[in-house]
Design brief:
The protein is an alpha/beta fold and about 325 residues long. It has three domains: about 5-55, 434 Repressor (Amino-terminal Domain); about 60-165 and about 295-325, Response regulator (Rossmann fold, 3-Layer(aba) Sandwich); about 165-295 and about 330-335, 3-Layer(aba) Sandwich (Rossmann fold), CATH 3.40.50.2300. The protein has helices at about 5-10, 15-25, 30-45, 50-55, 80-90, 105-115, 135-145, 165-180, 195-210, 230-240, 250-265, 295-310, and strands spanning about 60-65, 95-100, 125, 145-150, 160-165, 185-190, 220, 245-250, 275-280, 290-295, 320-325, 325-330.
Length: about 325
């Protein structure tokens, strides 16, 4: 038999309104009364109705997390780390999370409508990825729903809250490292080029070549999708171009590239050096171990969530921009 607020109040010997104040963490309850009510709640495993609590308090303590449309998003090396950081912070601050999957094409308008219809349940939104032509950002911005992006936005840059790393500088660093090692035909397996991340990393690659007066050969640039499949296909294409090094847009792409190199019996790094971007926790398990750019993925998710909750609770004001550092981690795959 499930209990309601009246049942808990009778068992605790207090009023229904007192139980409600305890559940909603109000300050106008004595500590002894709070402990007595919480003991009854714990003994009977009572869980208040979320919808009812939201109607009373206008607080759901629920945020949404929007991930890109991709069947491999959760099997990637990046997003599980990001979600761990988000989960750490929501757990610490007693919030819950709704997980949303992005859509594209004709489904995008219906998806956007569903997101906006849920704004009474969600108090805010973490946007983990978006495309350059995605109208969702503008529509959410116009509704005034608090949200934080986990990358640099393509629109309203100075008005939107975000936590990110400098991906242009981060991508330039490993390419310059390869150049300093004597590599001259350096290919690039990009990310999705309708994505800010993909564009920024391509810009960093080009900047490194320009700084060292190396020609920018379009045949050495292969568009990928930040996943192993396109890393594999991209590397097979670049091997036909005689590359002596490759900058993979992320570590997922680098894993696919390694597979293609092994199948072709190419020596790594003697014949082709390889670098990635992200420094996911499994980077040390690759053979050879992967040289990559470290970005604090879990910390990025945690800080983005903390910022969103601070915005919801009125502790900070928009816009907030947090830029985290990156650094090059040199391992076996580059031949240093």
């Amino acid at each position: 038999m499930s209990l309601n607020l009246e049942d808990i109040a009778k068992l605790a010997g207090v009023s229904r309104s007192t139980v409600s104040r305890v559940i909603n963490d109000r300050s106008d309850v004595s500590e002894s009364t709070r402990k007595k009510v919480m003991r009854i709640i714990d003994e009977h495993n009572f869980r208040p109705n979320l919808a009812a609590r939201t109607l009373v308090t206008q607080r759901s303590k629920v945020i949404g997390t929007l991930l890109p449309q991709s069947p491999t998003a959760l099997s990637s090396l990046y997003f599980p780390n990001l979600l761990e950081g988000i989960g750490d912070t929501t757990h610490q601050r007693d919030y819950a999370t709704l997980l949303w999957w992005g859509q594209s094409g004709e489904e995008e308008q219906r998806f956007t409508k569903r997101i906006l219809q849920k704004n009474q349940l969600m108090e805010g939104l973490i946007i983990a990825a978006h495309t350059l032509d995605n109208s969702l950002i503008q529509r959410i911005f116009e509704t005034k729903i608090p949200f934080v992006m986990v990358e640099r936005p393509a629109i309203f840059n100075d008005q939107i809250n975000y936590v990110t790393v400098d991906k242009v500088a981060g991508a330039k660093t490993p390419v310059e490292h390869l150049i300093n090692l004597g590599r001259r035909r350096i290919g690039h397996i990009t990310g999705i080029l309708v994505n800010v991340d993909g564009m920024d990393r391509l810009t960093g690659y080009r900047n490194a070549l320009e700084r060292h007066n190396l020609p920018m050969d379009p045949d050495l640039i292969v568009e990928g999708h930040f996943n192993q499949k396109f890393g594999y296909l991209g590397m097979k294409q670049l091997l036909k171009q005689g590359v002596d090094a490759v900058f993979a847009g992320n570590d997922d792409s680098a894993v696919g590239a390694l597979q293609a190199l092994r199948e072709a019996r190419v020596r790594i790094p003697a014949d082709v050096a390889l670098v990635g971007f992200d420094d996911v926790t499994s980077a040390l398990d690759f053979a050879p171990q992967l040289t990559t750019i470290h970005q604090p993925i879990r910390q990025k998710g945690a800080l983005a969530t903390a910022l969103l909750l601070d915005l919801i609770e009125g502790k900070v004001k928009s816009p907030q921009h947090i830029l985290l550092p990156t650094h090059l981690v040199i391992r076996q795959s580059c031949g240093a």
